[in-house]
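Deliverable D5.2: sample structural annotation.
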Amino acid sequence: MHDHIAQMHEQLFMRLMIDLYGWDGGFVALVGACIFSIVFLLLTLGDKGHQ
């Protein structure tokens, strides 16, 4: 059930971005989300204190 709710929020966000800014805005949002994911992953890779 929780996965379904998360998927609905994701679709709502993308639909809103595409409605407001067109397909270019949706693509920029996807690329931005990927960049944020990579940055946050890199921040956690250096944290060796919780092993």
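Annotation notes: DSSP finds one helix and no strands in the chain. The helical segments are 2-45.
The annotation will be released with the project's public dataset once the embargo ends.
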